[in-house]
Amino acid sequence: LTSMGVASAEAKVSTPDSSVQQDSLVSMTDVFLISLIVGLFTYWFFFRKKKEEVPELPKMQPVAAPVARDSSFIEKMKKTGRNIVVFYGSQTGTAEEFANRLAKDAHRYGLRGMAADPEEYDLSDLSQLSEIDKSLAVFCMATYGEGDPTDNAQDFYDWLQEADADLSGLRFAVFGLGNKTYEHFNAMGKYVDKRLEELGAQRIFELGLGDDDGNLEEDFITWREQFWPAVCEHFGVEATGEESSIRQYELVVLKDVNMNKVYTGEMGRLKSYENQKPPFDAKNPFLARVTENRKLNEGGERHLMHLELDISNSKIRYESGDHVAVYPANDSSLVNQIGEILGTDLDTVMSLNNLDEESNKKHPFPCPTSYRTALTYYLDITNPPRTNVLYELAQYAMDTSEQERLRKMASSAAEGKALYLTWVVEARRNILAILQDMPSLRPPIDHLCELLPRLQARYYSIASSSKVHPNSIHICAVTVEYETKAGRLNKGVATNWLKNKVPNENGSSSLVPMYVRKSQFRLPFKPSTPVIMIGPGTGIAPFIGFIQERAWLKQQGKEVGETVLYYGCRHEREDYLYREELAHFQKEGVLTQLNVAFSRDQAEKVYVQHLLKKNKENIWKLLSEGNAHIYVCGDARNMARDVQNTFYEIVAEFGSMSQPQAVDYVKKLMTKGRYSLDVWS
């Protein structure tokens, strides 16, 4: 650029004395050179500029900034003056409930807490929490399935695995929710606790391990009563002595309301049941029509049933081994009785609005709605209420002895815990039973609705193959009905509701809100791989789907390996489920072995594990030579454990291994996906 400027200046100052020829020659040469250089520079300049601007063309990056700000729990805490955040990984609502209770506790110590769903926030912001004075992150983490995170904690779990963040300023505590009958007890709680420490965070109180097979509520209370003193000591604060009940929601009764704007049972979008739009999931279930509902057992006191749900035109896809979730409704007679006892018009339309305007959770359930709808579709009225509910309700008991009894059961005293265990948990007293047994306890219905937990979806192993039934999902279930220690008849919510779903009837009587939850319970990739399936009772459900799929593969000309089933029931002539179907599959050569244990048809009880021992040589051959995959479905507390112990014995005997080596062998099968569990307690 400098030389060009000099040449140009020189050309302009040529004197008139110079000869015309020389002047003309110089000018023409200069003009040519200058034009060439200017042309090249211009081309280079614009070409270079365009290349530089390419990455800047999509000016969309700034749009992401507000999203990040909205999803920052740090900014929210600063804005609302909070210093404790309680994250929850929850599948059935219990961890969320515990998180809300801890967040509410904070005010008693001069602190302010908020419960938070990790799915809604960017957890990498944890490194900035130390910017807030007396800040603390608490994690209430449930473990789902076989050591997995809950759906809403999956992203957080993935981040923890990959993160190399420096969390040295973070103070934390973890309470895990698990079940000891499962192989990977409290795996998620243990992992979060360990990983946060590895990333430099400071644990201010020990990991709590709640066991749902025992008394989860007591485990939580015991941990909580030691947790808060540790918080006080760490931050140098004291309890304020405020134990008063603090309402989280305010009641707004709606008089002249447009009924088209009132929720009638929908889980998410208003009118979503009238105007169905895929994709269908937990917040947007599909209304499937029941096309078949037949009793499976021929005798006995129980009612075992097979249902078929029509998923035509839903775009729902499923694989054998997946789970179907259904949203049930509470028994209308229970709902009516609560309304009568509390002297309430259940058809009153109302809304419970969060007093914390900054909260992401505006209502405890979809609002506006009626009390009838809330108690029927949204609230759990059949499970024994937790101690926090009893504590909040105590203020409404007019009889001092009843008030004291409720407060005692909600306390952390040993006597109170024992009373809660016997009078509420073991007696299976639900909220209606408590109201009936305490005549002076008459809380406002809106506060009761605020306190009761959400009614949860129920999961069932799908009893069909999508290869054979692409437009239908099959369920195998047993109705739950039992007499409590207090002499009341309690009925399972979902199974009794499903029992009454009659096919081919118009209206809602045959409709079931449902969605599919993916599972890791999968057939081997190669159809030629042998499978050993163990599923007594309704645990046979996924194996009906597996066998259907193996039959379909065989029809397609695929080489299908040995398909071995170990099934068990009480009596051959009473509750032998899918007898005809299994006989047909065996006749067709798809089901190569059918081993059935009838536990009560003889003096000594015979279970599936006894048949496994009987055929131990064949089992070992399939495992060691055929690389067979093992599948276990059903009761986790006894059956699954007994079956696993039997495999330890078989492996030790035929593999010439010690007990620890055999255990390690089976654990490795699990790690490799060759030993899969679909169990419940």
From TrEMBL:
EC code: 1.6.2.4
Pfam families named in the record: FAD_binding_1, Flavodoxin_1, NAD_binding_1
PANTHER family: NADPH--CYTOCHROME P450 REDUCTASE, NITRIC OXIDE SYNTHASE-RELATED
GO CC annotations, alphabetized: cytosol
InterPro entries per the UniProt record, alphabetical: CysJ-like_FAD-binding (IPR003097), FAD-bd_FR_type (IPR017927), Flavdoxin-like (IPR001094), Flavodoxin/NO_synth (IPR008254), Flavoprot_Pyr_Nucl_cyt_Rdtase (IPR001709), Flavoprotein-like_sf (IPR029039), FNR_nucleotide-bd (IPR039261), NADPH_Cyt_P450_Rdtase_alpha (IPR023173)
TM regions (residue ranges): 25-46
Organism per entry: Rhinopomastus cyanomelas (Common scimitarbill)
UniProt name for this protein: NADPH--hemoprotein reductase
